[in-house]
Amino acid sequence: MNRINKPSAAVCLAFWAALALSGCGAATPAEEPPLAGAAIGGDFTLVNKAGAEVRWGDFAGKYRVVYFGYTYCPDVCPTDMQRVAQGLKVLKGQDAAKADKIVPIFISVDPERDTPAVVGEFAAAFSPDIIGLTGTPAQVDAAAKAFKVYHGKGETQPGGGYLVDHSNVVYLFGPAGEPIATLPVDKGADAVAAELSRWVS
Questions:
Q1: Whose C-alpha in 13, 85, 118, 124 is 20 to 30 A from the C-alpha of 78?
Q2: What's the pLDDT tens digit per position in 145-195?
């Protein structure tokens, strides 16, 4: 089974802040996002399914849902990505204008196996709207560090394969790249859609 380990202290604090601020409906104008001011996110240089260079700034003006995982993940990553895709589909049915403001991004933490084509195919299996990104080990490490994501090669499996340990946090960022909240993928698609609707304006 894939092990998910070591969320950062910032993520833990943000999680409890999110619980304290949770409620129904859209955020009020005076309500501060759970991750407001957190040092999460920042510029990166990665590549998409076509091998073209992609930077964080390329998504300026869009809300961004960001998840770090890997395509060979046997359980957690596919489940989380499915719930992200389903949540976006639910939101689109409720408010297409809000859904159109969001770009979902999957970033591989396994560049050794996850080529641009493999990552692109993996992302598209959940939704054609999800952008799959990978890069060199140095590029992936830099992106993971900026987004406070833990990752490291884990157990070797029978046959010579291996798992990758990583934190499984789904972040929501605003149009200026500012961290807003984490998405409750563990609670299902409706909860994801509700949280997106809460913060996307």
A1: 13
A2: 999 999 998 878 777 789 999 999 999 999 999 999 999 999 999 999 999
- Residue carrying the six token digits 């990104």: 133
Task: Please classify residue 63 by burial: count the beta carbons closer than 10 Å to its beta carbon, then call 0-12 exposed, 13-18 middle and 19+ buried.
Answer: buried
Which pTM does this prediction carry?
0.85
Number of residues that make up the chain: 201
Tokens of 97: 């204008």
Cβ neighbours for 149, distance < 8 A, ≥ 6 positions apart: 68, 109, 143, 166, 167, 169
> Cα(9)–Cα(155) distance, rounded to whole angstroms?
25
Three-state DSSP class for residue 86? helix
Q: Please name the helix (run of DSSP H) or strand (run of DSSP E) that holds residue 173, with its range, or none.
A: strand 170-173
10-45 pLDDT, tens digit per residue, is 444 444 344 333 344 565 556 899 999 999 999 999
CATH, range 9-24+32-199:
3.40.30.10
Alpha helices in 113-155 (DSSP H): 116-126, 137-146
Residues in contact with 53: Cβ distance below 8 Å, sequence separation at least 6, in sequence order: 45, 46, 47
